TrEMBL record:
Catalysed reactions, semicolon-separated: L-homoserine + NAD(+) = L-aspartate 4-semialdehyde + NADH + H(+); L-homoserine + NADP(+) = L-aspartate 4-semialdehyde + NADPH + H(+)
Entries under Pfam families matching the protein: Homoserine_dh, NAD_binding_3
Cofactor(s) of this protein: a metal cation
Residue span(s) of domain Aspartate/homoserine dehydrogenase NAD-binding: 48-103
Key words of the record: Amino-acid biosynthesis, Methionine biosynthesis, NADP, Oxidoreductase, Threonine biosynthesis
Residue numbers binding NADPH: 56, 80
Organism taxonomic ancestry: Bacteria, Pseudomonadati, Pseudomonadota, Gammaproteobacteria, Lysobacterales
MF terms in GO: homoserine dehydrogenase activity; NADP binding
Name of this protein: homoserine dehydrogenase
Positions contributing to L-homoserine binding: 168
């Protein structure tokens, strides 16, 4: 029996609860659910989970990952602020895993669970050397830029992307390139490169009026004129928000790509990532698929839980009281 604690009951957290309900797996038991307002079940410490599921966007929660791992609790996260924030925090997570044997499931943090991190790690286990990564890493920006033809204000599209659950809780995290920076850091670090967060050059799409706004929704209109100007300046191809890391240089920002560029394929929230390595020296390995959405993200988190099942920690553990999933649903 694996005891799970779920932090965060928003888009992703609710999808985790719904998936647990649908799977109805007797080997999984939800012993704690919490958001910033409500806790269901005993406190996190008292519930002594085997696995903490982080479905928040909270820096304070991510700052605790290393402590939980050091305690022997596995951590499965959609929150990128563990391995995608400061290098010191990413290294603390690494060290805690080595010291305690606990595992860190981060598949959901890049590409909403596409087999990106898994492939990067498997290539290296097989003796490959990763030379660089280039990609469209934001599902929301991919979705927005695919739709943006000037007929509808960019701000209207941002509101739609937010309502569909593709953006971060604060969409400025996507629009500023910060979400993509975090993903590029996670990928580069998974490729063995100790990249500092401020080593990534980031082009932000957020005008000052939006950056400083308290009422984010009202201030989204400030995007419309500058984004229209960017669109008008495109002569051939289409705008894409691209991340690149190679030869010590890492940058994220808008680029105009020709339709036959490998990074320009796909539709909707599709992410596309090209991995350049010793094995894939002439043609990169390209991985593509939906890169945002609560359901795929929740599925990736639970895949990471299932991957833990062979861990000795769970052998012989007693069954625990399952926190009512219906209550978890009710505290959204
Ligand atoms: N949406 C997507 O497509 C994807 C999202 N992710 C990541 O998933 C995470 C969640 O995203 P999403 O569900 O859209 O966000 P939401 O804003 O919908 O939900 C966030 C949840 O976290 C809770 N929370 C915040 N701080 C804490 C805390 N200290 N302790 C417990 N709960 C807390 C919030 O509680 P309250 O309601 O009380 O404020 C809320 O329930 C983010 O890190 C995001 O980057 C990753 C891949 C894809
Ligand atoms: N806001 C993110 C969601 C997944 O990480 C994105 O747009 O890609």
């Amino acid at each position: 029996m694996i005891r799970l604690a779920l932090l965060g009951t928003g888009n992703v957290g609710q999808a985790v609860i719904a998936r647990l309900e649908a799977l109805d797996d007797p080997g999984l038991c939800l012993v704690h659910i919490s958001n910033t307002r409500v806790t269901v079940g005993p406190s996190l410490r008292e519930s002594a989970p085997h696995v903490v599921l982080d479905a928040t966007a909270s820096d304070a929660v991510a700052a605790r990952h290393a402590d939980w791992l050091a305690r022997g609790w596995h951590v499965v996260t959609a929150n990128k602020l563990g391995r995608g924030a400061s290098l010191a925090r990413a290294e603390a997570i690494e060290n805690a895993c080595h010291a305690s044997g606990a595992r860190y499931g981060d598949a959901a943090t890049v590409g909403a669970g596409l087999p990106l991190l898994r492939s990067l790690r498997a290539l290296q286990v097989g003796g490959d050397a990763i030379h660089g990564v280039a990609g469209v890493l934001s599902g929301s920006l991919a979705w927005l830029l695919a739709r943006f033809d000037g007929s509808v204000p960019f701000s209207t599209l941002v509101r739609e992307a937010r309502a569909a659950g593709y953006t971060e809780p604060d969409p400025r995290i996507d629009l500023s390139g910060e979400d993509v920076r975090r993903k590029l850091l996670i990928l580069a670090r998974a490729a063995g490169v100790p990249l500092e967060a401020d080593a990534v050059q980031v082009e932000s799409l957020v005008p000052q009026a939006l950056a400083q706004a308290d009422d984010i929704d009202a201030a989204l209109d400030a995007l419309d004129a500058p984004m229209h100007a960017r669109l008008d300046a495109v002569r051939e191809g289409r705008l894409h928000f691209v991340a690149r890391w190679r030869d010590g240089i890492a940058r994220v920002g808008l680029e105009t790509l020709a339709p036959n560029d490998p990074l320009a394929a796909g539709s909707g929230t599709d992410n596309r990532v090209a991995i350049h390595s010793a094995r894939y020296a002439h043609q990169p390995l390209v991985i593509q698929g939906p890169g945002a959405g609560a359901e795929v993200t929740a599925a990736a988190m639970l895949d990471d839980v299932f991957a833990l099942r062979d861990q000795p920690t769970f052998a012989g553990t007693r069954s625990s009281k399952n926190v009512a999933i219906g209550i978890g649903r009710a505290i959204a």
